[in-house]
Amino acid sequence: MNVEAMRFRLSNHALEEMERRAIPREMLEIVLRSPQQIVPEREDKKAYQSQIDFGGGRIFLLRAIVNDEIDPAVVITVYRTSNIQKYWRAP
């Protein structure tokens, strides 16, 4: 799967969560186009995730929960967490 060529649509919920959680769209687009990891989630969803500096040297894991079985892929929700070890998968 060529992630860079994929098209994504943001659900209303994802848009609301980005605004509520102060996640810039540019950061989300970087994760969607070039995720450090794609890990399976429940049902037909995957987490596209990358460790990102949100400023001040604080690294967060930015996670986008995506249904990429359809075209365009749908971003269900977006959030950042400092609990990186909970979600990060060792290679």
Characterization of the model:
It is a single chain. The protein has helices at residues 12-20, 25-33, 84-87; strands spanning 8-10, 37-40, 46-53, 59-67, 73-81. The protein has one domain (3-87). The longest helix has 9 residues, at 12-20. A 5-stranded mixed sheet has the order 1-5-4-3-2. Strand 3 (46-53) and strand 4 (59-67) form a beta hairpin. With 91 residues, the chain is α+β, with helices and mostly antiparallel strands.
Shape: globular
Structural class of the secondary elements? alpha+beta
Q: Report Rg.
A: 12 Å
Mean pLDDT: 93
Report the β-strand fraction as a percent range.
Answer: 35-45%
In short:
With 91 residues, this protein is of the alpha+beta class.
Characteristics:
five-stranded mixed β-sheet, alpha+beta, 36% strand, single chain, 91 residues
Write the layout of secondary structure elements.
Blueprint: E1 8-10, H1 12-20, H2 25-33, E2 37-40, E3 46-53, E4 59-67, E5 73-81, H3 84-87
Parallel strand pairs: 1-5
Antiparallel strand pairs: 2-3, 3-4, 4-5
